[in-house]
Automatic annotation (TrEMBL):
Keywords: Coiled coil. This is Myb/SANT-like domain-containing protein. It comes from Phytophthora fragariae. The lineage of its organism: Eukaryota, Sar, Stramenopiles, Oomycota, Peronosporomycetes. The keyword Coiled coil applies. Residues 28-55 form a coiled coil.
Length: 198
């Protein structure tokens, strides 16, 4: 599932991946949750991990403030720790970087790209329209390709859970009906008793 997030993806593709992850989470944990809630929880966990990793690198006078590790710290290290790109700090990278060196690299890259653009020939409008038409046709063909459906095992699990929920609802309805009948019988007996007293 993690490979679905790799690469440059559009907002719609990422939204679809988060929705699939939400469905899988709902099936495994039997908890209904929104994709945004799941995404926010993941971002919070990443932030907690980054905060503790940055606190570990502090030395000197700050060592008298102990680092409070979370109860699930080992799991965070296992699933997040070996990944790079935790915010602006790569795993194992020094927190302090030479910003002037980085700025010089960025400026050099921008200048190189500008020179390449200047060297390019003027684009023919006809060729541009043909290329645009081809790209639009490809997009239409891709859009018409049927999307993959959930695996049969997931559908079977979902069906069994739905059946179990229906059984639970039916038993609850029967219990409520029995309570209503019992209450009606008590009310009738009470009414009969009160009518005899008067």
């Amino acid at each position: 599932m993690a490979s679905s997030f790799n690469g440059s993806r559009s907002v719609a593709q990422l939204s679809a991946v988060w929705e699939r992850l939400r469905l899988k989470f709902a099936l495994v944990q039997a908890v209904q949750i929104e994709a945004a809630q799941l995404k926010n929880k993941y971002q919070t966990l990443k932030k907690e991990f980054s905060t503790i990793k940055l606190a570990e690198s502090d030395t000197g006078n700050k060592t008298n403030e102990p680092i409070v590790y979370l109860a699930y710290w080992d799991l965070l290290v296992q699933y997040i720790g070996d990944k790079s790109g935790l915010g602006s700090v790569n795993f194992g990278q020094s927190v302090h970087s030479d910003s002037s060196k980085r700025k010089a690299e960025v400026d050099a890259e921008i200048e190189r790209q500008r020179e390449q653009r200047r060297k390019k020939e003027n684009v023919d409008i006809g060729q541009g329209l043909v290329l645009l038409g081809e790209n639009l046709a490809k997009a239409l063909v891709q859009r018409q390709v049927p999307q993959p459906v959930l695996a049969p095992t997931l559908l079977a699990e979902l069906a069994s859970k739905q059946y179990a929920m229906l059984q639970l609802i039916e038993s609850n309805q029967q219990q409520v009906a029995a309570h209503i009948e019992s209450a009606a019988a008590v009310n009738a007996a009470l009414l009969s008793f009160l009518s005899k007293e008067h």
